[in-house]
Write a structure and sequence with these properties.
It comes from Rhizodiscina lignyota. InterPro entries: Actin_polarity_regulatory, Afi1_N, Tripartite_DENN. It is a single chain. By secondary structure, this protein is an alpha/beta fold. The chain is built from 29 helices and 12 strands.
């Protein structure tokens, strides 16, 4: 059953608080109103954040900041609901009671609302910020300045902020514009109550909850009807509910169904869910992203961030001085965007300075940088320690946070290099490395790798480049080793070709994914094993008898492996002690446990597909991969040591309606497992990298059994809700081969 991402009977509000602050010439920043009640924390600090520096110089400005709210009471209530569900699962329907006298076989009235709201809590817990601490409260703030000669300063400055748990807080911008104008006319708490009631009445119950793999597929695809089936199921379920509800109050049974059919429509683009908020008699259309990745907050542009720091570098390259082995991984002329990514990965203190720019610009740059290093949710731990906007009054608290990412507008930060490791100057488009940055320690892993592989001077850490006259030639050689130069060239080509924001985000997602796999290879090379690849023993020993083995990153040669690992060694060692590294290890462990419960493959799908893409193989080697991919789908959900289960469950008796309930349940579980594994396969075969092209090449394999297996694999994909879009984008030549073999 498809579940709603925001159920109608959920107790969680879309917006928790609405704040209003103003600037008083005598008292400074003052908090005027808080609705529906006072928010915990320092009111003066909140008022100062809501009224940024030089706010009176602009008629309009947006700011974003995060609050770490105390949620101990909410956690206790959530744990109580979980305990109630565990008790009912243990007792089942035997009608026994607990110590409070409640019937454990039947949920109480208080539990009925909790069950639906928390039914998928265990499924999505690994995606929540609760793994790192209490969930963040995202604050969207609007500052408005109106000229008024009757007041002392000649202007009235007021700010209104919305506090929400939703990371897509940019959808509230049109509502804030209307509400702040209304507050200027009528500055009373009832104005805030009107906005509070309007935004919390927004109906998002028809927005389906997507799994992590489904969100990745949707974000990487341009198909406007991707997973439209889930939206249709939500509508059909709602229509049935409406018909049942109406039949209880009316004797006519046909009219409610007709009214429901005209009331609900499928979305025009499944990437966005369209809703409407009625505020003060004005219908305000709202578009909510259907797939939100961790570390993606608000509305920002990676293209804008890249262009800001790429244009000055391409016109007049400047060497980074001082250089740093964690940052200048391609020598002193490393691309500034790569330096920024390396600083984020190795947890350096980063400041975005936007002198004489709106505070909204620096906040947008901070949020874009977090998404840049996250790679679309591959890594986490950036936004929790980000400060989209801050000022000099918060510097003491800021310096207590290791590896912060802050946005400021005060130029005093540029003259304090001890406050930051990397300074990103937005007006000039230049990135500076602090002369007081802490040096990179030489770890045991680096020493061991240097003794057994190529020297570490490939990454520009040593001073050899200063003695070389042809710096550009040396820099090109270094960039060829790391691959960063070619990557940035492809990014610039996509931007100049107007491929769009989603393509750029997909490229950086693939870049971060590649980085993690190279880091895993480095750990295995130096330490003998890696926590970044769980299940290596199963894939290397071919536990499930697929006929292929191996895992990790695909190398074309041993020379390439040694050179690339040498270029990545310093930043990998720098990354291994960061928050994002440990969060990634935890995410992998939870994902592995979940896969073992639902759809364990026992095969590194990305590794095998990369072998098809990157290596020149013989017919027998490619045949083994094609047959293994086909077997992984066919055996989904079956026990690895029970090969007969597959044939037994696919027999005519099992498929027919005469199957017993146990067999039907087993078949349903296997179909769900196949669905999940096909999702895993589609994630590693994005359309931007050719989609099903390399799979379809198996249709022309010399061996007949391989061609037949590929046909079966493509038929499974063609029947998949998302796979049918991949099939539609497959070339006509491949489709002709498919029908011929079939």
């Amino acid at each position: 059953q498809v579940r709603s991402q925001y159920p109608r009977d959920s107790m969680e509000n879309h917006v928790e608080y609405i704040l209003v602050a103003s600037f008083d010439i005598d008292r400074g920043s003052v908090m005027e109103h808080q609705y529906p009640g006072p928010i915990s924390g320092d009111e003066t600090m909140l008022a100062e954040l809501m009224l940024p520096d030089q706010a009176h110089m602009r008629s309009l400005d947006w700011t974003i900041f995060f609050l770490h709210k105390d949620t101990s009471a909410e956690e206790e209530a959530k744990e109580l609901r979980r305990e109630r569900r565990r008790r009912r699962r243990r007792k089942g329907g035997d009608g026994e009671g607990d110590e409070d006298g409640n019937d454990l076989g039947r949920p109480s009235l208080d539990d009925e609302g909790d069950d639906y709201a928390d039914a998928s809590e265990d499924e999505t817990e690994e995606d929540d910020d609760e793994l790192e601490g209490p969930p963040l409260v995202y604050v969207l703030n609007l500052v408005n300045t109106k000229q008024d000669n009757t007041v002392k300063r000649g202007a009235i400055v007021k700010a209104m902020a919305i506090c929400t748990r939703h990371s897509f807080l940019h959808i509230y911008k049109p509502l804030l514009l209307l509400a702040l104008e209304e507050y200027f006319r009528n500055p009373v708490p009832d104005t805030l109550a009107l906005l509070y009631d309007a935004v919390n009445s927004m109906d998002l119950s028809l927005m389906p909850r997507l799994s992590l793999l489904e969100r990745q597929i949707l974000q990487a695809s341009d198909a406007k009807d991707m997973f439209i089936e889930k939206f249709d199921q939500m509508i059909q379920h709602r229509m049935v509910e409406d018909a049942q509800r109406s039949s209880e109050h009316s004797s006519t049974s046909d009219s409610p169904s007709r009214k429901a059919l005209t009331r609900y429509n499928l979305p025009r683009d499944t990437h966005e869910f369209e809703s409407r908020v009625m505020y003060n008699g004005i219908p305000v259309p709202i578009k909510i992203p259907s797939a939100i990745s961790p570390e993606t907050v608000g509305d920002f542009s990676l293209v804008k961030l890249i262009q800001t720091f790429s244009a000055p570098h391409s016109q007049s390259p400047q060497a980074f001085s001082p250089s740093h082995p964690h940052l200048t991984t391609s020598g002193p002329y490393t691309h500034p965007v790569i330096v920024l990514i390396n600083a984020l990965l190795t947890q350096k203190r980063i400041v975005f300075l936007g002198h004489n720019q709106p505070s909204g610009s620096v906040a947008e740059a901070v949020l874009a940088a977090c998404a840049l290093a996250s790679g679309g949710g591959v890594l986490r731990g950036f936004t929790r320690h980000a400060f989209p906007y801050t000022d000099l009054t918060k510097i003491d608290d800021l310096l207590k946070v290791p590896g912060f990412i802050a946005g400021v507008t005060n130029p005093a930060f540029a003259h304090k290099p001890e406050w930051w490791d990397v300074l990103c100057d937005l007006p000039t488009g230049r990135i500076k490395i602090s002369p007081k940055i802490e040096g990179a320690p030489v770890t045991e892993g680096l020493l061991f790798f240097q003794q057994s592989n190529v020297p570490l001077t490939l990454n520009g850490a040593a001073g050899t480049s200063e003695k070389t006259s042809d710096k550009a030639a040396l820099n090109r050689a270094i960039e060829d080793v790391t691959g960063d130069h070619a990557f940035m060239e492809s990014v610039h080509h996509s931007i100049s070709s107007r491929h769009g924001e989603n393509v750029i985000r997909s490229k950086f997602g693939a870049y971060i994914q590649r980085f993690t796999r190279i880091a895993a290879a480095f750990e295995e090379c130096v330490y003998g094993a890696s926590a970044l690849f769980i299940g290596a023993n199963e894939t290397d020993t071919d536990k499930w008898n697929y006929g292929v083995s191996g895992h990790g990153y695909v190398w074309r040669s041993e020379a390439e492996r040694a050179a690339v690992l040498g270029g990545y060694a310093w930043r990998v060692e720098g990354w291994r002690s960061t928050r994002s590294y440990y969060s990634f290890v935890g995410d992998l462990a939870r994902g592995w446990d979940k896969a073992n419960k639902q759809a364990s493959v026992g095969l590194d799908l990305r590794f095998q597909c990369d072998r098809l893409r990157c290596l020149k193989m013989g017919h027998d080697q490619s045949a083994a991969i094609y047959l293994a991919l086909a077997r992984s789908i066919e055996r989904a959900g079956a026990e690895s040591d029970d090969a007969s289960t597959s044939a037994e469950d696919d027999s005519p008796a099992s498929v027919s309606g005469s199957a017993d309930p146990a067999t039907a349940a087993r078949n349903a579980a296997r179909e769900m497992a196949r669905y999940d594994i096909i999702n895993q396969l589609l994630v590693v075969l994005p359309e931007s990298s050719g989609g099903l092209f390399h799979i379809a090449l198996g249709l022309f394999h010399p061996r007949q059994d391989v061609r037949a297996a590929v046909v079966g694999l493509l038929e499974r994909i063609r029947e998949h809700p998302a796979g049918r879009h991949f099939w539609a984008n497959m070339g006509r030549f491949a489709k002709t081969g498919f029908w011929r073999v079939r």
